[in-house]
Amino acid sequence: MTAPFPTATITGYPRIGARREQKKALESFWAGRIDAEDFARSVHTLRIGTYHRLAQLGLREDYAIPASYSHYDHVLDTALTVGLIPSATTGTDFDLDEYFALARGTAQRSPLEMTKWFDTNYHYLVPEISDDTTFTAHPQHLLSLVSEAKTAGHLVRPVLVGPLTLLALTKPAPGTPTRPLDRLAELTDVYLDIIGVLAAAGVEWVQFDEPALVADIAGTSDHELAEAARRTYSTLASARTRPQLFVTTPYGSLREGLDGLAGSGIDALGVDLAASTRASDPDYASRLASAVPQQVRLVAGVVDGRNIWADDLRTSLEVLQGLGRESLSVSTSTSLLHVPYTVEQETSLPVDVASWLSFAEEKVTEVEALATAVTAGPDARIEAFNRADRARRTRAESARVNSPEVRERTTAAAGRDGFRTDFAHRRQAQDALGIPDLPTTTIGSFPQTAEVRRARADHRAGRLDDAAYAQAMRTEIDRVIELQEDLGLDVIVHGEPERNDMVQYFAENLDGFATTEHGWVQSYGSRCTRPPILFGDVSRPNPITVDWSAYTAQQTQKTVKGMLTGPVTILAWSFVRDDVPLRESADQIALALADEVADLEAAGIGVIQVDEPALRELLPLRESDRAEYLDWSVRSFRLVNAQVSPRTQIHTHLCYSEFGEIIDAINALDADVTSIEAARSRMEVLNDIADFGFERGIGPGVYDIHSPRVPTVPELVELIEAALKHVPPHRLWINPDCGLKTRGYAEVRASLANLVAARDQVVAAGLPTGAEAPESAVGVSG
């Protein structure tokens, strides 16, 4: 008899380990401290421990637990499983050397391009497809996960990125005219092969994640995606021998795709019914109730998988009951990949704030409580419902949350557009900085050594007093200054040794935020961050970066760049409030940062970079929602810099920004210089720059800092020369893709030395002249 779908489930779980066990295993393997067998044992122990813990938390039914583990990235895993990337599968698992070469590169080859997973801070590796790509099923890794779980006493669901989403995220190889989605029928045949193998192995449920169906995908209409979903899943559902099919649609609501997907013959449909989705699509629940046949299990994701506030269980129960279904399961809105493991590990959070929170473990218990309450009523899980009631009440009543002074200042700034003086005037005024053509600089951070991390930890623990800590940081700053001067960089930075993370550092110094000890979330591979928790109104009690930048300026004759994190990025990489609009929080943070900018300028810092690497990340998945977001997000950036002198040069930095999609907004940021990641994509963004007529300073990164390989001088010369075909020398900056925090000093020194040498070689060969007259700003007025 086929196993029924579980009444309580989740669609994914954190995979780094509650104490970052996977991160440590990965980095030990990469460093050669452990071999492949040791690595396999470490991650096997982590996976089995996760299954045991989830069962303890209430996911005891067969197939309630998804096998959502990945060594590095789930998109890479699926691409290998279906042969979209030539197979790195050997035996029962991936060939680790080939797998990590694709993810991280080697001295001889570049890694796959990386970008953001929908509107989250998770990064996925971007597969490429050419017309001669041949899809082939390689299900060994999935079978291995299922087998080891079964041996440990757990029947788990294999998880794959669905075929539509996989192709929607794939890019055509250079010179490939065919759209990836045009290969869908061929790819569907391979998915048929895979589910056939899984069925033969006794697997009764398989999960396909299809977030592309809740997004507007460039070059593809919602109608086309909806029809493609209907055809694809009708084909998979018609297979003679197959597991039952569970399709998830996280990060938003289905629109045109709902009817076709619900009627395609799939066995369970997972939908995002978190409060934010219900607010943006108020009719979604009622459309689901009428569109999804009773024979299809509706898996209602009412518990928010992306934020950390305790669920309002009574409201969620009303939503579930309002669906009017017997074939109903309770789940999270998205994978819990995006939240930390458990609040129980946190000992330094304010007690009241901690009581308002639910991390991954707590969300599993919320899912289980709701699933029980659907059939037995809330009294059956009264302790969970009472906790939820207390969290909601005490948070609403807390004096920590609201500041009348901050609200008054924010209201007063509501009518300001934040524009500075005309860009052409500013550019002329900034000539006094003496910055040459093709100036070299970095994005801000330098490698964080063990000594730096130890000094921060000792200071935090009280083992190092303030004076000794300040001296340790100054010693590291002196080292960074000396390195940059020796290399010949034109605009230098202090290296940010005092900063644990570019967002957390500011959160620790702004009122309205709380930070965690163990709230780690995977960003990509072994890279983890601890998103701060924005729980109240935001203000700056004291200067944050001024002393470090001022000290740097005193030690060098070079131009010094001050470094701040912008309001949108602070929001994007934090867990944000759900009781006020993001627009309001953005303005509060912007005004706090404006105070910092004013103090930096007063201290004589003539170049200030306000990083907004996450500007594209928060862009709504539906085009109809984007104009409003771009309006308030861009304006909040301008508020940070609105009062600075024309002589002060404002920079910004954007990561994985898919520049062309939001180039109007980037121009409207009104920054004097914008640096962007471009090395992995081989300067593809330059076409967007040229097509738009972007007339500001631009620094398309030439050194990919996400890979340990050192770029050669000829490689860098090629990228600089490619950039000069689109950008004149007086507007082109030469810089890495991103900050250097995660790299080691040996590779950084070698890479930056090559970067400067490449710039010098290009200059020696002769720069183009007369290609462009001095410009004025496009679409921006003072």
Label this structure with key terms.
782 residues, 23 strands, disordered C terminus, six-stranded parallel sheet, single chain, seven-stranded parallel sheet, alpha/beta
Structure commentary:
The longest helix has 22 residues, at 36-57. The chain has 782 residues and is α/β, with parallel strands linked by helices. The termini are far apart. Helices cover 41% and strands 12% of the residues. Helix 16 packs across helix 23. The strands form seven sheets. It has a seven-stranded parallel beta sheet with strand order 1-7-9-10-11-12-13. The radius of gyration is 26 Å and the shape is globular. The chain has 28 helices and 23 strands.
Quick recap:
By secondary structure, the chain is of the alpha/beta class. Helices cover 41% and strands 12% of the residues. α16 (404-412) packs across α23 and α23 (582-602) runs parallel beside α24 (626-641).
How are strands sequenced across the largest beta sheet? 1-7-9-10-11-12-13
Coarse shape: globular
What amount of the residues lies in strands? 5-15%
Low-confidence stretches: 770-782
Structural class: alpha/beta
What is the number of strand segments? 23
End-to-end separation in angstroms reads 71 Å
The description of the largest β-sheet is: 7 strands, parallel
Q: Level of helix content? A: 40-55%
Mean pLDDT: 93
Helix segment tally: 28
C-alpha-based Rg, rounded? 26 Å
